[in-house]
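Running log. JK asked me to keep both predictions on one page so they can be read side by side. First protein, sequence followed by its tokens:
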Amino acid sequence: MKKVLALLLTGAMALSLAGCGGQNAKKIYDDAAKKTAELDSMDVSSVIAMKMAQGEETIDISMDMDMKISGINTDSMKYQADANTNMMGQNQELSMYYENGYYYMDAMGQKIKYAMDLDAMMEQIKQSTEGSSMDSSYLKDIQAKKDGDNQNLTYTVDATKMDSYLQDIMSQMGTDAEGVTYNIKEASGEAVVNKDGYISRQKVKMVFEMELQGETISMDMDVDSTYNNPGQTVEVTTPNLEGYEEVDASALQNQ
């Protein structure tokens, strides 16, 4: 289930920068996505809502997540994310932190840390926040509307292209779940490009099915991400790192 949720959340974050009719709207999107991806620090708040259905049974999952990154593409890069997940009426808090070659995770009071190469961490951040190689060619029915100093963009995503794109991301990140296949039914979204040319907000909706051990699970996912003061310096404060038990990262892949 952890790998399945990783797939869902990675897909959502990949889409969170996948956003913009006409050629002018595509240019607005491509220019904003490129400028946002070149930021050396980032502060993003996301609200994620998922509904999983199997037959007559449904499960609602919600997550609030705050993520900060500073020193992107430098040896002193710091990453911090705090999330609160609610599933079946139960809350679970999760904190993640990266600094100086170590990844720290605190889930429900269980604290672990493991060595992680900086390049590997940067690739994971790139895949989950930039949308990597995704550009406006993955989008269709793009419309742009001026709203004061902002540009409001609406779009739909080419579901066929998105299937293969997400599979590539899962493979590169090592979060692909064996025996899990999925079929994106539809995906759409809205994006706001501010007066400085940065993406400042993104809403994405995905509807898809997953095949897991011969069972079909239907998924509806909504992601609302706000990029707080894009272009401004972000400071990441090192938390208390005492009490974390070091584990072998390779062993986690099989859990």
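And the second, directly underneath as requested:
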Amino acid sequence: MSNSLTNTARLLGAGLRALLVLTLVTGVVYPLVITGIAQGLFPDKANGSEIKADGKVVGSSLIGQSYNLPLKEGQKAPEPDLKWFQGRPTGGLGTNSVNTRYKLLLSGATNLAADNKELIKQVEAAKAAVVEDNSVPGYTVKPSQVPADAVTSSASGLDPDISPRYADLQVHRVAARNGLPAAEVQKIVDEHTEGRTLGFIGEPRVNVLELNIALKDLVAKSR
């Protein structure tokens, strides 16, 4: 009996020592080492790829933001503020009490099939809105000009980028809303268009937050 208690105590002591060592190694030492390496080699990415404007952090280059008008009394869905470049639609996992535009507690695709009637209806409505919103005097958008990313959400629903085609399509509307020459707005779009990563990964893209910060500066200079 005494021998059994001694063995149990010895095993318990060994287990507690192992727990303490593993806790220190995996819970303290390892995180500190990795954090130090990340801060030393990739400080921007390690801190969330923050974007600053006027000395303040205004968002992350990895997460999209909405550019909407304040809700009016009795209004359930906000309207886009069309003086800004707009990002992709954000279906995510659907709109409900926890999932709203760019405020997703969960993220993911809708998983609707390409021939799903609900998805087709959403895409058609989005395309009609893009055509209407971006058609201004002297520039009419054709349905055939609307790219896929203008009417569909990304898999996560948090895509911060749009295609150069979608950015170009919005130039005349943004210029008209802000009283700017279209050529100047097109110039900042071109300046913020990134090519494929390493020259062959992904597609050319435009970060909407960075583009709108440049637009804000352009509007301030024109005043």
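Observation for JK regarding the second prediction: Residues 2-44 form one domain.
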